[in-house]
Every structure is written in structure tokens, then in C-alpha cells.
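Exercise 7b. C-alpha cells:
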């Protein structure tokens, strides 16, 4: 299924573009060669900082999504390994039946919630992982090999969940966001002070202002993972 851009996103980006352009068109012209060179320097400096922050946020997002995929894949493997063991001998069937119910309950905890609730599912996962250790005695070499794989898979899931919790909490601090907003304001002020009373100059200033605002919006969206909260 193709991804579609939400109407709210289109409206927000349009408002930023139109608002930034109108601001550049109506501000008093205060052109000064000194400010013209200053706004270029400030914009270049700000661009480097923004690029670094966006790169960091994208890497965090990539690692988080990869950890979520790892958890899902290993939970599937845990289920199929346990099912194989449960079908291998009668004494494991009750153990697998209860594990099946616990895994179903763990997945159902996500229904109708967004990813901010992920920490609340820790008790359900602990019930599942503790049950893995309560298997009846494993005797045959084949069953021992299967159970060893089940234990290692459970450990990978637990590690993935820990990474997910840590990465979800690694959003930019309030200090960083205040610095970002102040830097964006500085670029906008420098662009305004270097604007001459000509259409070309005002359109150039509009391009700078809109670009800064869109960059801040992009950084916020990546850092907050707003579009992924529900789909995750």
C-alpha cells in the first residue's frame, strides 16, 4: 500500500511556506552590506548544525525501527520454535499452550495504543519470558537443542526491547530545542536585516526563512517520530 501524506501535514507545510513568504514580503527593508554578509555566514553555520542534528535524529530513528523489526522477527521465531517443541512431546503441550496465550496477550496490549505506551507492556513481556524458563525437564538432545535456541531467542527479544526503550527516550533535550529555536530566529533576523526593497531580495529572504522553518519542522518530526507513533 502506498504511503499518503496526511492532510494535516500538507496544511502545516503550506502554512509555513505562505507565512514565511508573506513575512519576507512585508518586513521593512533594512538592507546593509554588513548584514548581507552576516546573514550568509549565520545561514551557513546554522545549516551545518541543522544537518548534524538531522543526521543524529535519522540514525536514532533507523536504530529504533531496526530494533522493533528484531523484536517482531524473534517473537515469531520464539513462537515457531516453541510450537515445534510442543508438538514433539505430550509433556510440552501444556507449556506451549500457556506460552501461546501469553504471547497473544502481549501482542493484544498494543491494540489501539501508540508507541508512548511501550513501557507499560513490560509486565506482560516478563510473564512471557518467565514462562519460557518454566518448561518441564528437557531430555532428548533434539529437545535440548530446540530449547537452547528458544532461550537465546528470548534473550535477543529482551535486548531488543531494552534498546527500544532507551532509543525512544533519547529525544533531544529541552536545552537543544531552545538552542535550535534561537538559532533559527537568528538566521531569520539576519535574513530580514539583509533584505533590500526589491522583489528579488525579498524572494531570496523568503527562501531562507521558509527553508529554516521547514528544517525545524522536519527536525521536530524526525525527533518526535510523530508519523510512526501509531504505525509502530
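Sequence design result:
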Amino acid at each position: 500500500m502506498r504511503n499518503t501524506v496526511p492532510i494535516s501535514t500538507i496544511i502545516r507545510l503550506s502554512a509555513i511556506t505562505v507565512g514565511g513568504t508573506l513575512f519576507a514580503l512585508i518586513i521593512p527593508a533594512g538592507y546593509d552590506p554588513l548584514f548581507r554578509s552576516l546573514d550568509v555566514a549565520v545561514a551557513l553555520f546554522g545549516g551545518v548544525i541543522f544537518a548534524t542534528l538531522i543526521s543524529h535524529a535519522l540514525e536514532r530513528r533507523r536504530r529504533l525501527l531496526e530494533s522493533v523489526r528484531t523484536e517482531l522477527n524473534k517473537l515469531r521465531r520464539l513462537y515457531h520454535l516453541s510450537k515445534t517443541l510442543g508438538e514433539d512431546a505430550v509433556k510440552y503441550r501444556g507449556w506451549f499452550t500457556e506460552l501461546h496465550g501469553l504471547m497473544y496477550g502481549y501482542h493484544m496490549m498494543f491494540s489501539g495504543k501508540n508507541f508512548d505506551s511501550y513501557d507499560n507492556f513490560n509486565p506482560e513481556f516478563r510473564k512471557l519470558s518467565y514462562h519460557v524458563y518454566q518448561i518441564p525437564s528437557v531430555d532428548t538432545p533434539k529437545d535440548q537443542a530446540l530449547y537452547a535456541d528458544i532461550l537465546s531467542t528470548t534473550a535477543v527479544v529482551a535486548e531488543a526491547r531494552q534498546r527500544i526503550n532507551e532509543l525512544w527516550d533519547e529525544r533531544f533535550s529541552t536545552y537543544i530545542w531552545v538552542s535550535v529555536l534561537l538559532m533559527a530566529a537568528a538566521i531569520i533576523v539576519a535574513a530580514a536585516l539583509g533584505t533590500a526593497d526589491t522583489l528579488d531580495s525579498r524572494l531570496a529572504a523568503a527562501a531562507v526563512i521558509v527553508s529554516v522553518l521547514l528544517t525545524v519542522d522536519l527536525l521536530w518530526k524526525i525527533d518526535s517520530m510523530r508519523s510512526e507513533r501509531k504505525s509502530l
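Instructor comment: Residues 33-88 form the longest helix (56 residues). The chain has a mean pLDDT of 87.
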